[in-house]
Design goal:
Blueprint: H1 17-34, H2 51-61, H3 67-73, E1 79-83, E2 86-88, H4 91-95, H5 98-108, H6 110-118, E3 126-131, E4 138-142, E5 152-155, E6 159-163, H7 166-188
Antiparallel strand pairs: 1-2, 2-3, 3-4, 4-5, 5-6
Helix pairs in contact: 1-7
Length: about 220
Amino acid sequence: MLNDESRPSQGAREFTWPDYIGWGWMIVQQRMEADWTGLWDYAMPNPKASEETVARTEAQLGFRLPESYRGFLLAADGWPYFFQDMTIFSTSDLLGGDLHKAGQIQLELEECVEAMAAGGVVAADHFPVVASQESIEIALMGRPGTPAEGTVSWVRGEVMQRYDDFLDYYLSMMELNKLDTADIREKDGPKPEGIPHAIIDRPGSPPVFEDARRDDL
């Protein structure tokens, strides 16, 4: 568990992916606790993928995954709803399924391909690693052997932001999670006494750990 002096921040590369994911989960728990009206869905990060699973996925894809995303999968094999309705792909999502299809759509629609090109992103040089089944938000990773190799682009019909690698993207999205938490608290205020929490009081809801209630994440 990270202490006050060593919590992750952009550029702090001495931390490992399990550290970043544990820190990120505390941030998401804060948003979940603030979201007593149930605006969003929430889920814990998936258990880690094995090296064998990642290697088997890479064999089917035909290329080795960029190290920043590969490291994430070896610590958590995907993360549903890690930011609002956006899900980080698991190894199985990379190969097919509804999320994969949602991510591929914008790589194939002519108007989206043109909009991405206008933002400096060549659709053919990328593959999806984050998508949503409720919105058009996706994150694309540059394929190995292309000028975009290892980079990440956040796309919503057009290019919203570009990142150096998957860790850079992840840390930036966690900062947005913090801002989202502040917005929810301002809009909804504290949960009234006697009113059930739409998320935490739901059977099977992810837990909220005491460390997630810190104000220094």
